[in-house]
Write a structure and sequence with these properties.
single chain; alpha/beta; Spore Coat Polysaccharide Biosynthesis Protein SpsA, Chain A; ten-stranded mixed sheet; two-stranded antiparallel ribbon; 53% helix; globular
């Protein structure tokens, strides 16, 4: 009996070590590819500026808002400063019970209008529409019955006039050239149906006329660690998956979509917490089912600045929502798994999100329990395991630093000496401390799932740093 236990523990321990090494290899490949793309984009920037022409796709920017009175006016003002010629801004007030709508009406001198909306996607009914033509571009406010973020986005699609739309969170700001950069792949690729932008954390950033004039790491350690995490995850893995049309997620904070394809696929799903991922996976399935040539791209130089949770409680709410949304999206489209019709999407992307995102906290916990059990039975070389975990942690920290400083350099941002020291000190804490914290949140996300599966949880917002 004891011999069987030993064999099982050794087998599980070997799997756990292989699992960690495979993930580290993926991160290394991702960071190398991501960094090379950023450096190439930086080298091509001057050339792009020289050959830039006045070719534009008309774009609707949809901003779903629910109780966003603190940030929504600054968000719209930042959108009016975009370096783009043909777009409109639609804010969808999803049944707010604060002053979200009134703040917009007062700030932009909106006037009530009566125009029919073509219901191409089902959503909760509108209550009223306000509009202004006095700004650089049309600003529209649609007030509707509360139905959730996905429902608000569907209303924005129904109200939009243009063939492409961008979804943007109400606590986010775009850089002045962000819309131009996220549209650029569509100009060169007629089959592009969606494109994700780079989301960076706005805490500690000051924008003036859509350009970064000051950048520093905030004093809040939790936010600093999220900055390091964002730069690694957004810059690295999504750029690697972009190389073979394998991205399954476009962040709900900033993404561009071709409207007619989204409408044909059924729009956003109001029954999931991860409406952003669900839509992207749905587009993969829809286009392959009907043999529609398509690409889903990622534009690393299209920058959106979004607020990060400043407290552990807010971070817990956010990451719980993300993990449940991931589960709901993957379960709904589980036909992709090991399905040869989906090719590399099935055998790489879906498996990656299954084992290294959805199941990773459980695999890692089980692996640690196995290592502890093997140690108790004197089946493990303690010094080897200590060195292995130490090297693994340092390796992850080095990759995080590589991603972070590559992003700083390629955006011509400047860091103070104290910020450099802070980043170097926190990279290891982020790789161990924040990772373990988030793993715990994801592991416990399904507690009370039946009762709370559609609850977002309110996150505290603060004023955006915009001049």
């Amino acid at each position: 009996m004891l011999e069987n236990v030993k064999v099982i523990l050794e087998a599980v321990g070997s799997f756990f070590v292989l699992y960690m090494m495979t993930y580290s290899t993926f991160l290394l490949l991702s960071v190398v590819v991501g960094s090379s793309v950023l450096y190439r984009n930086k080298q091509m920037a001057d050339l792009h500026n020289e050959i830039k022409q006045d070719y534009y796709y008309p774009v609707t920017i949809i901003v779903p808002a629910h109780n966003e009175e603190v940030t929504v006016v600054d968000t719209v003002r930042s959108l009016l400063q975009l370096d783009y010629k043909l777009y409109e801004i639609i804010v969808v007030d999803d049944g707010s019970n604060d002053l979200t709508a009134q703040k917009l009406i007062d700030a932009f001198d909106l006037r009530r209008v009566h125009r029919p909306l073509q219901r191409q996607i089902a959503c909760q009914p509108e209550e009223y529409i306000f509009e202004s033509q006095a700004q650089k571009v049309p600003v529209v406010l649609v007030r509707k019955k509360n139905g959730g973020k996905a429902d608000a986005l569907n209303m924005g699609i129904n109200a939009s006039r243009f063939p492409y739309f961008v979804c943007l969170d109400a606590d986010s700001m775009l850089q002045a050239d962000a819309l131009e950069h996220i549209v650029r792949p569509a100009l060169s690729d007629e089959n592009m149906v969606a494109c994700g932008g780079m989301v960076r954390i706005a805490n500690g950033v000051i924008l003036e006329n859509g350009s970064v004039v000051d950048y520093h790491l905030p004093n809040n350690i939790l936010i600093c660690m999220q900055i390091l995490e964002y730069d690694r995850s957004f810059m690295a893995s999504r750029l690697l998956l972009d190389a073979f049309n394998g991205n399954l997620i476009i962040s709900g904070a900033f993404g561009l979509f071709k409207k007619d394809i989204v409408i044909a696929a059924g729009g956003y799903d109001s029954s999931t917490l991860g409406e952003d991922m669900e839509l992207v996976v749905k587009l993969h399935v829809f286009c392959r089912k009907y043999d529609i040539p398509y690409t889903i791209r990622y534009a690393a130089d299209a920058i959106c600045w979004s607020q990060a949770p400043a407290t552990l409680n807010d971070l817990r709410k956010q990451r719980r929502r993300w993990h449940l949304g991931l589960f709901q999206s993957m379960w709904k489209h589980r036909q992709i798994l090991l399905n040869p019709e989906f090719g590399v999407l099935s055998y790489f992307s879906f498996l990656y999100f299954l084992f290294y995102e959805l199941l990773s906290p459980y695999i890692e916990l089980f692996g640690l329990i196995t290592v502890a059990s093997a140690f108790a039975l004197n089946l493990i070389n303690l010094s080897f395991m200590i060195w292995f975990f130490a090297v693994y942690a340092v390796f992850g920290a080095v990759l995080t630093m590589t991603a972070f400083f590559a992003r700083i350099y390629t955006q011509n941002a400047k860091l103070s000496f104290s910020d450099v020291v802070k980043a170097l000190l926190l990279c290891l804490l982020e790789n161990i401390g924040l990772r373990l914290l988030i793993a715990f949140v994801r592991m416990t996300a399904f507690i009370g799932y039946r009762k709370n599966k559609m609850q977002w949880g309110k996150i505290t917002r603060s004023k955006l740093n915009r001049i």
